[in-house]
Amino acid sequence: MGDEDDVQRTVADGTDDSGVESPEWAVVKSLIDVENATTATMEEFLLHTTTDATDDLPVENLQERLDDLIAKQERAVAELELAKRALTELDAE
């Protein structure tokens, strides 16, 4: 049962046996987080703009979520650039 628990922990948090998060997992997890945040923000915006709830459009809330989303997108781009550089360095070796 211990091996199965280790595999589930590894899948859940992207760590190896030493508990260190793999760079690949960090990049993929960041992209997943950005995608989820993007979807949630679009759903909220569409809900308010395509229904009678237009008068209740939470502009400040959406602006905060968009600011958060922009920060997540910037982080994802930075992580992708790091991953790309790492691949280039590995290829040069």
Describe the structure.
With 93 residues, the protein is mainly α. α2 (23-49) packs antiparallel against α3 (59-92). The protein is 78% helix and 0% strand.
Features:
mainly alpha, 3 helices, 93 residues
Question: Layout of helices and strands, plus pairs?
Answer:
Blueprint: H1 2-13, H2 23-49, H3 59-92
Percentage of residues in strands? under 5%
Q: Could you tell me the mean pLDDT?
A: 75
Poorly predicted regions are: none
Structure class: mainly alpha
Rg:
19 Å
Number of strand elements: 0
N-to-C terminal Cα separation, in Å? 40 Å
The biggest sheet amounts to:
none
If helices are DSSP runs of H or I spanning 4 or more residues, what is the number of helices?
3
Instruction: Identify the overall geometry.
Output: elongated
What is the N-to-C order of secondary-structure elements (H for helix, E for strand)? Answer: HHH
Q: How much helix, percentage-wise, in residues?
A: over 70%
